[in-house]
Amino acid sequence: MATRHQLLDAAAQLIAEVGWGRVTTRAVAERAGLPHGAVSYHFHGKQELLTEAAMATVEAMFPLDQLRSVTKLTDLIPLFQASISTPPDPETIDPVSSGVLAEAMRECGRNPELRGRITELLRAYRSLVTDLVHAEQGRGVVERGPDATDLATLLIAAGDGLLLHALLDPQLPIAGAAEVLLALVHT
Amino acid sequence: MATRHQLLDAAAQLIAEVGWGRVTTRAVAERAGLPHGAVSYHFHGKQELLTEAAMATVEAMFPLDQLRSVTKLTDLIPLFQASISTPPDPETIDPVSSGVLAEAMRECGRNPELRGRITELLRAYRSLVTDLVHAEQGRGVVERGPDATDLATLLIAAGDGLLLHALLDPQLPIAGAAEVLLALVHT
Amino acid sequence: MATRHQLLDAAAQLIAEVGWGRVTTRAVAERAGLPHGAVSYHFHGKQELLTEAAMATVEAMFPLDQLRSVTKLTDLIPLFQASISTPPDPETIDPVSSGVLAEAMRECGRNPELRGRITELLRAYRSLVTDLVHAEQGRGVVERGPDATDLATLLIAAGDGLLLHALLDPQLPIAGAAEVLLALVHT
Amino acid sequence: MATRHQLLDAAAQLIAEVGWGRVTTRAVAERAGLPHGAVSYHFHGKQELLTEAAMATVEAMFPLDQLRSVTKLTDLIPLFQASISTPPDPETIDPVSSGVLAEAMRECGRNPELRGRITELLRAYRSLVTDLVHAEQGRGVVERGPDATDLATLLIAAGDGLLLHALLDPQLPIAGAAEVLLALVHT
DNA sequence: TATGAATGAGTTTTCATTCAT
DNA sequence: GATGAATGAAAACTCATTCAT
């Protein structure tokens, strides 16, 4: 249903713009160019609308299917970058997806449904990266000292942290920091 | 003014608990055990109350004065840990301070006053850590390859990222990841 | 929309009764026998509600359409009387319409929207009366000495002034004064 | 007491500026450059403060003592003009005194104390003008046809009406209309 | 299936008044 | 005599949800 999709899109934009707790159903309908009644008609309530919108956005940021075919740690970068950048320029961070991610991570503590789905997704992602690190350590490309799980946790957390800081201070150059991390990790 | 302080405390707790956009002045007053009118009397409005509460909390997390006396990179860890952990157990992350930090970082995009104060604080912190990294590189304790600014940016972002993930999934062991980061950085 | 109309009616009554600045949306809703939310639903805010209510009342007091068919100055009297009196008795001044007029004239200084609409209406009315005076002077029915514009201004201002005084002191006999004015004007 | 006087002055200004119903005690104290507590200390409540302020202003507009020495109707004009104009330019209408008069006349309907004092003042004024008209009619200066009381009522009401219209539309030339009235009245 | 008018609970803010100092 | 911190009642406004059409 196109209507449903338009509402989810509008809701994701507004979560990023005004913050989860201040999104109103009226604003979502208006942004989507749809009548206000459409929200209640397609979703059980505001909570459901926002949860679905956030999950759709976050899932697009961690495309597990595509990640499964990655074999080199450095190949993660372009994939992740593509999912958080605005199409024409891969250097610009898309404020909607990164904003929704940050909002959703905070919202987890209050919304069990969302929490379950987000942590499940992140665990799958962490496990995938752990396997990747393990393989690269086996090949001698990545430092063998650190535990693969800890390293994967670090890589993901550092990525999110850089994202958050870039969102806060757009002038902050984070590309250098990301490269430093990869250089440190590789032998 | 004890009243003002009680309101700031209650507001910080609620920002972490329910999220910036859903804190109500009524709830703040109730939590502080004060009449509702006290909020309007002591603050110009909700925005001011929340901004002051968030800044007081975040400033306590980055105690620049104490940081100036630090000379070794590893000495940062206990200081940071102390500022974000609940007093009895330094291993537990205080959900209030870390929650407020996460909320404030998101709120920056909509609140210029907050944005100015937070970015100023983080820039001072980043500059301080950069100097520390530089000194440690001179002493040969830290890898000389990476640019000191990028390394400092990475360290802070990784710290915040780990904090955020720990907040999201309390069972996630982040201590190991933090140690891995330091081990990679040191020669 | 019957609801909207009921609110406008109730608002006009309350403007006259308690004064513009002390009308509350709650009281308007209650007077109209409607829920409180109806006010915000049908109007953008209190200001808009009161402005619309006042304009509807004042426009009914100066029925320009009907005035255009008037040819004799004395025919103005019954028309004006009809628009400000309570239906059964044409001698009694309706406290609502005259009260709203007085309140609206005062409010103009603080409400540019209202000011524009009221002054436009009064200018149209003044111009219409000026034409009428001019015609009557040509016919020799009205004193030819005074300037038609000044005379029209005087007639209207005197009418409003008598209205205001009658409102203040209901026992004051103003009918005699009104007749005196017309007698002086006519040759 | 100078303090009391300063409060009355400030209150009169604010009545004219924001309207009777929207004057706040805080604003009065601030305008007077006095502490907020001074209001409660010098007056029994807001109602008393505003009533006293309005009466002091209105009484200054109708200086009965000076009026008693007037013998010619035309001598009323400069006296009235002086009491409602701003000192340097007798042509400009003082928005404070005329605004307070208009507000007070409307407020009478809700404030019995004020109503008593205002109607008493206006009746005294009307009686004085009636006597004046009677004398002038005896001297043959004023048209003998109309009843003196009705003529006095008309004169006062027309004056107030012109004042009100000038307040509403400052560009409206009312001097001509006033002269026309006097010309009509005189033989 | 789809709409938008209607509702009322809940939010922020204002403010006269009280009262301890 | 004088002050201003404190209070709570009441105001305007927002908004998710319901429901008749």
Automatic annotation (TrEMBL), chains A, B, C, D:
GO terms for molecular function: DNA-binding transcription factor activity; transcription cis-regulatory region binding. It holds the Pfam family TetR_C_6. Residues 24-43 bind DNA. InterPro entries: BetI_C (IPR039538), Homeodomain-like_sf (IPR009057), HTH-type_TetR-like_transc_reg (IPR050109), HTH_TetR (IPR001647), Tet_transcr_reg_TetR-rel_C_sf (IPR036271). The keyword Transcription applies. Residues 1-61 form the HTH tetR-type domain. Keywords: DNA-binding, Repressor, Transcription, Transcription regulation. This is TetR/AcrR family transcriptional regulator. The lineage of its organism: Bacteria, Bacillati, Actinomycetota, Actinomycetes, Streptosporangiales.
